[in-house]
Amino acid sequence: MIINYSNVVATELAIKARQVQAVISLIEDGGTVPFIARYRKEATGSLDEVVIAKIRDRIEQLKELDKRRAAILKSIDEQGKLTSDLTKKINEAETMTALEDIYLPYKPKRKTRASMAREKGLESLAEIILLQKAMDVHSEARKFVDKEKGVGSTEDALQGARDIIAEKINENADIRARVRKLFLSRGIIKSRVLKGKEEAAAKYKDYFDREEPVSKVASHRLLAMRRGEKEMFLSLDISPNEEDVFRIIEKEYLKGPNEASMQVEIAIKDAYKRLLKPSIETEIRLETRKKADVEAISVFKENLRQLLLSAPLGAKNVMAIDPGFRTGCKVVCLDKQGKLLKYEAIFPNEPQKNTVQSAATIHELCAKYNIEAIAIGNGTAGRETEQFVKSIGLSKDILVIMVNESGASIYSASETAREEFPEQDVTVRGSVSIGRRLMDPLSELVKIDPKSIGVGQYQHDVDQNALKQGLDDIVISCVNGVGVEVNTASRELLSYVSGLGPALVKNIIAYRNENGPFKSRESLRKVPRMGDKVFEQSAGFLRIKNAVNPLDNSGVHPESYKVVEKMAGDINESINALISEKELRNSIKIDSNITDTIGLPTLKDIMDELEKPGRDPRKSFEQMEFDDSVHSMEDLKIGMSLNGIITNVTNFGAFVDVGVHQDGLVHKSHLADRFVDNPADFVKVQQKVNATVIGVDIPRKRISLSLKSDPFGEKPKVKKPAKRKPEQRMDSFQDKLSQLKNRFK
Asked: Could you tell me if residue 693 is left (phi over 0), alpha (psi between -120 and 50 degrees) or otherwise beta?
């Protein structure tokens, strides 16, 4: 059995075993990923959250592997078939697949054709045939004819023997491994439209008759094909060339050209088509789906991170408008903390077109509540409402901003929204969510299921447990990375803070409601059930503005306060002076503060925090405006250059909102003048871009965009360098070697 997980994981991740062991110990001691990454750098060698999460997940996989290993050993032992060689093989198996291949011949199974043949006494005949000696096979088979046992003829006997041989082939771990490898390296995935489904399956037209190597199929195409199969529009098949498979098996089992060999050859083909292919194809389907899931979840996670870390407008008095036509626009006014102050409905758009009264209402509300910014949802009637608001002569100091409202309707009908606004209907709640998103995207978006935010790729088709784990990791990372103001944070936001669970979050909110705002981090210890371990895990990520100790509004952990006090004491200054004066900080020799528990990484983090205590790590807010002459797809013309904002990034490109209620697609071939393999390396969600319209398909609601400097230009021809002679290549090598030597002289 695997005893030292650290060595296994360290080898896989190309890090040191002691780093892995440190992470394992910290996790077992109750440490969270954000806490370990931020406050235990000395122990882990400054591993980041991504690597720490990989260690955590891989350790769990290895533990599951060991559990299965133990169960298999027990099962085979109970059958009385466990040998020392078999035990060694099982203990050395490094993957679940290899483990299951070894176990397959011993795995209890329902009746099979082979097991029934064995019951008829045909095992000996199968063994004789497998020897493939020169003999009269039918004469040999006649000896096994026994009508009482159900063997009525020589053909019955031979068929039973072949069934036994086929099962032996299928259960041969080496054969399975080699055939599996062939499927992965040279297998072809084929998708076909089901007969009579051509019209209904129009959205899968690209997959009606498609073939591509399993090893090269893109994750988004695989997920699309699988969805088409699930919806019963497509059929899928995965297989390599049959002859290649037969050669692998024949090399192992065929010994010579005689009658017995002919029986074995028949059994080989039956073994593959009836047993091996369906089994391996199922495995490949699972394996390729898992790979596609990992890629899709990775894309989703990165998009979610960018969205959650969108630049906040900050504490402003905000008017939020959920636009509409027939049902009107729902207008709410919020104070700087996001508290609902007023709700009104206006009808500036068709069919009512009550612009005069609507304009008067907007002016009145802006004056009464000192509105500094207006957030308008980007859904139906969004651009029309934006145009109306901009046309009514508001102060130029009032920002008018379009806000992505994806998921706002999900929030408005949620239990969280009902608890926040029990007396308001869903329209009011949705408007509030739009306004708060502008003020602080992170605080508001954590209230919504990430799958409903609209930044995923086939998120409903992937492994939901893996998706949830991955998205939870991202939300937790973002929340703790930014920090949480404990006196104003919502229950949902607090629940993502390192170490805090639902019960403790409830206690924190109850305590601040009863006793007023927390004055210091230390006062958090008075909250019921706030033990030392929870305080250790959470305190560094909780912020308290205007606290007596300025460090309480920073990322400096309370366990390091004494270090900062010593730094200030060494130069006879206060902590406030240390924070406000750069010259004082620069005068500190941080090396002199290294101790057995606090090293250079933590000290550098402390100095960074002293430079910007309480400062939001997110980017500053920048306003973007859509083209006022474009409001619908009908307004788009080929060649137009439009401002837009990236709403989603996938493996095949990026979707951009250009203000026409339908996102356009920038295929990855049009993301840049150079080749782009992974769009996520080049563009991010919420990034502002200027895109060129290169295609408009109104019936199919498709817009094609380009970010190239010359989207309509010809593809540049790449001139291949002339082949050099061996002596030229050697001269070039010598020149480079001389240059390298000169650099290090």
From this structure: beta
Q: What is the CATH number of the domain that holds 647?
A: 2.40.50.140
Tens of pLDDT, residue by residue over 22-50, are 999 999 999 999 999 999 999 999 999 99
The per-residue pLDDT for range 415-459, each reduced to its tens digit, is 989 999 999 999 899 999 999 999 999 999 999 888 888 777 677
pLDDT of residue 724: 52
Residue 646, both tokens: 């990236």
Per-residue pLDDT at 717: 42
378 and 440 fall within a common domain: yes
* Backbone phi, psi, residue 676, to 5°: -120, 115
The one-character DSSP state at 724 is P
What's the burial of 404, exposed, middle or buried (CB within 10 Å: 0-12/13-18/19+)?
buried
For 611-655, give the DSSP string. HSTT---SPPP------TT--SGGG--TT-EEEEEEEEEETTEEE
Tokens for 537, please give them: 């895990």
**Long-range pairs for 264-270 at CB < 8 Å and ≥24 separation?**
264/129, 264/130, 264/132, 264/165, 266/162, 267/162, 267/163, 267/165, 267/166, 267/169, 268/166, 268/169, 270/162, 270/163, 270/166
The verdict on 151 and 282 lying in the same domain is yes
Cβ atoms of residues 16 and 6 within 8 Å: no
Do residues 696 and 667 lie in contact, with contact meaning Cβ atoms separated by under 8 Å?
A: no
Indicate whether 558 belongs to any domain: no
Nearest CA to 590 out of 558, 567, 565, 573 is that of 567
Instruction: Please provide residue 654's backbone torsions phi and psi, each rounded to the nearest 5 degrees.
Output: -135, 145
Q: Same structural domain for residues 95 and 131?
A: no
Tally of domains in the chain: 4
Do 400 and 430 lie in a common domain? yes
Q: In whole angstroms, what is the distance from residue 647 CA to residue 86 CA? A: 54
pLDDT of residue 723: 52
Clarify whether residues 261 and 327 are in a common domain. no
Provide the CATH number for the domain around residue 57: 1.10.10.650
Same domain, 260 and 333: no
Same domain? For 359 and 476 the reply is yes
Q: Are residues 98 and 118 in the same domain?
A: no
Nearest to residue 703, comparing CAs of 647, 621, 628, 624?
647
Cis, peptide link before residue 517, omega less than 30° from 0: no
Give me the domain span that covers residue 641: 630-745
Model pTM score: 0.83
Measured between alpha carbons, how far is 220 from 653 in angstroms, rounded to an integer? Answer: 11
Q: Which of 608, 615, 578, 375 is nearest to 485 (CA)?
A: 615
What is the model's pLDDT at position 700? 83
Query: Would strands 484-485 and 542-543 be described as parallel, antiparallel, or unpaired?
Result: parallel
Helix 5-13 vs helix 49-78: angle between axes, to the nearest 10 degrees? 130
Q: How far apart are CA 701 and CA 694, in angstroms?
A: 14
In angstroms, the CA 577 to CA 118 distance is 88
Task: Please list the ranges in the chain whose pLDDT falls under 50.
Answer: 1-2, 716-721, 726-727, 729-730, 733, 737, 740-741, 743-745
